[in-house]
What we know:
Strand content: 15-25%
Helix content: 40-55%
Strand order of the largest sheet: 3-2-1-9-4
Largest sheet: 5 strands, mixed
Number of helices: 2
Distance between the termini: 162 Å
Low-confidence stretches: 1-33
Amino acid sequence: MSAIRRSMPYLAAGSVLVAVAVTAALATGASAAPKSDASDAAATHGLSVRLAAGDAKDAVTVESAAIAARASEIKFAAAEAAAAASVAAKAAAEAAAARNLVSSEAATLRAEGVPCDIYADACVSLSKQEAWLLRDGRVVYGPVRVATGRASLPTPAGNFHVWYKVVDGWSTTYDAPMPYSVFFYEGDAFHEDPVTVRSHGCVHLSLTNAEYFYHFLQYGDLVEVRY
Length: 227
């Protein structure tokens, strides 16, 4: 009994120590739990920040790619426009060159002093009321005065060929003589008639000139009538 009592102080002291230890452990556990939660929250926040930063970076990358693509489109469109302008300029230059060539050839082919080209054998100017005879691109006779068709029955302009000749021609349509007729278009011909009177489509010449034209021009010869 006394032995038990003697040991009681030790038990009581042990109990105190146990109680202190338990209390310390509880205190330690209580303080550890909030620390763990704080660490998890910090980690979660850090992850959120990193994710947000990643999203922002991705957004910037996508936007940069879109801007680059748009710049590429603009550059391509500019290149296409420049190419089209180059093609148009080339076409315009070629057209101008072709016009210059035609003009140059026309100038080369034009017989000197007449509105007809070098291949004509007879040339008539409707505006000047004159005519010429040519050989090998050179005037050999003329100009001579003529009277072409009146306004209601004009002499047609163009290129024609001698297809019929008759010394003592006669117009059945107008019942009138047509001396030294050289027909070049349907019923139209060079022939003698007053050069002060407009015709019904023929080319009036004086008697001397009509005779010269008749002997000079042959079947198939080119007759050019110009304004």
